[in-house]
Amino acid sequence: MEIDLGPIWISLKLASVTVIVLLLLGTPLAWWLAFTRSRSRAVIEALVALPLVLPPTVLGFYLLILLGPAGPIGRFWVEITGTTLTFSFSGLVIASVIYSFPFAVQPLQTAFEGIGRSPLEAAATLGASPLDTFVRVASPLALRGYVSAIVLGFAHTLGEFGVVLMVGGNIPGVTKVVSIAIYEQVETLSYSQAHYLSAGLLTFSFVVLLSVYVFNRRIPITRL
Amino acid sequence: MRLLQTSLLILTGLTVAAPSSAESVAVAVAANFRAPMQTLVEHFETETGYDVKLISGSTGGLYAQIVNGAPYDLFIAADTRRPALLATAGLGLEQTQATIAIGQLVLWSVDADLIAAQELGALRDQSIRFLAIANPDLAPYGAAARQALMAMNLWEQWVSRIVYGENIAQAYAMAATGNAELALIARSQVSADAGAYLLIPPEFHEPIRQDAILLERGAANAAAVALLQFLSTPNAAAVILDFGYLVSN
Predict the structure, then answer these.
(1) For the domain that residue A53 is a member of, what is the CATH number?
(2) How confident is the model at residue A223, as a pLDDT?
(3) Looking at the predicted structure, is the pLDDT value of residue B5 above 90?
(4) DSSP E strands: which ranges in A25-139?
(5) Given CB atoms, is A53 within the 8 Å cutoff of chain B?
(6) Are A155 and A208 in contact (CB under 8 A)?
(7) CA B115 to CA B180: how far, in whole Å?
(8) DSSP letter at B221?
(9) Superfamily assignment of B2-102+208-242 in CATH?
(10) What phi and psi, each to the nearest 5 degrees, are found at residue A59?
């Protein structure tokens, strides 16, 4: 039996790139959400959590409009790169980042909130710059949050289906990810191939989640 | 205690009795055929007084549900294969399998000028970025689209510029939002007020037959048998034609 490994690589590549972008965008936002006293905080929190409740097809449909050549983001992209965003790997990354955003932001926010203001204020009193405080005090204390954000963001991206199908167009070798490949095999009654990929995905997800929980138990929570 | 027992008895009696009720029929219908089926059912219900419940989904999904014991009496698929498989498995009555409708493949664009200017020649236009079709391995219209492109010797030219929807509804969405300039979809999906379409010559692909089959569970259900018969009457054919399908003679 021949198993096409292409979709697996695309999924892994997509999940890795997505996690990097998630951390770059999610960290400052989670930090702001954790410490702001702004009234708009609730609004932003609700927006971040939206992908949790929206059916993926709804999200996929809106993203198709937003990222499409006639949409505001898509048009801008066409102007600067000359290529369309939908049905491309870049488009998939944007869609995945939006789709997995709450999975990265929420653990980070909880972790930052858990640190509290006092260690940060202590560091500042001792003359640490804000960047220093963040890198050397806050980040080590929020390690659990980072691990959760990375793992959940990665695993959630790996498992997504509805959004990538709409935005990606399921092009073999470009946007055909493993979850779509599994769906196709189930629908075409190729159950044995579907089992291989599904069992692989299931095992992988379980191992990843298990290691997070084990790891999180081992990290001592240091309180200053 | 006696009361509890009685009510339990009544409850179990009800749940057992409800599915085998002769007045009602549960129909699993392929999503593309739901709209015409709705109209057909309205006619049928006023004519006979029977009660029809429609359950729609993808042909493959409904098939998997039926194999796993879903309580449906009648199955209207988007292909001939799934009903035949059910007949082989003894879950459907082979002699009742019949073609209800024949789908028509069209080239559609939300940009009416594109179709008006180039007609089918738009399929030879190298400057067009994307053509949306349904997944040929999953959806009969997708398979027909691939056959048609191959028949026109255009498959190789399009292969890297085709985007695949899970079904024709998604292929339509990809084109309706302007992400794909062209789509090969079902005549029954397109309306006169959005974009423009052209029929693909039917000789370019195998006929897209949608078969119905009476399921084992509906064999003794008079309503299910009556509905299946109703679907091949001239009255039903008129409705089916009206929705953009052909009927077999």
Answers:
(1) 1.10.3720.10
(2) 47
(3) no
(4) none
(5) no
(6) yes
(7) 14
(8) -
(9) Periplasmic binding protein-like II (3.40.190.10)
(10) -60, -45
CB-CB under 8 Å, B61 with A170:
no
3-state secondary structure of B183: strand
User: Using CB atoms within 10 A of its CB, is residue B133 exposed (0-12), middle (13-18) or buried (19+)?
Assistant: buried
Q: Which two tokens stand for residue B32?
A: 């593309």
pLDDT at B218 over 90: yes
For residue range A87-123, what is the model confidence (pLDDT) as tens digits? Answer: 999 999 999 999 999 999 999 999 999 988 888 888 8
Alpha-carbon gap: A51 to the closest alpha carbon of chain B (Å)? 20
Nearest alpha-carbon partner for B131 in B158, B104, B112, B153: B158
Instruction: Name every chain A residue with its beta carbon within 8 A of the beta carbon of B60.
Output: 186-189
Residue A177 and residue A201 in contact, taking contact as beta carbons nearer than 8 Å: no
Can you name the CATH fold of B105-199?
Answer: D-Maltodextrin-Binding Protein; domain 2 (3.40.190)
ipTM metric: 0.70
Residue A71: list chain B partners with CB under 8 A.
177
What is the predicted pLDDT for the residue at B116? 84
Q: Residue type for B52, please?
A: V
Whether B170 contacts A165, CB under 8 Å: yes
Furthest-apart CA atoms within chain B: distance in Å: 79
CB count within 10 Å of CB B68 equals 7
pTM of the model: 0.75
* A171 vs B159: CA distance, rounded Å: 9
Bridging pattern class, strands B24-30 and B74-76: parallel
- Give the count of domains, chain A: 1
In whole angstroms, give the CA distance from residue B237 to residue B235.
5
Using a CB-CB cut-off of 8 Å, the residues of chain B touching A189 are 60
Pairs across A and B, CB distance < 8 A: 62
Q: Contact, B181 vs B191, CB < 8 A?
A: no
Q: What is the mean pLDDT of residues A9-14?
A: 92
Q: Is residue A224 domain-resident?
A: no
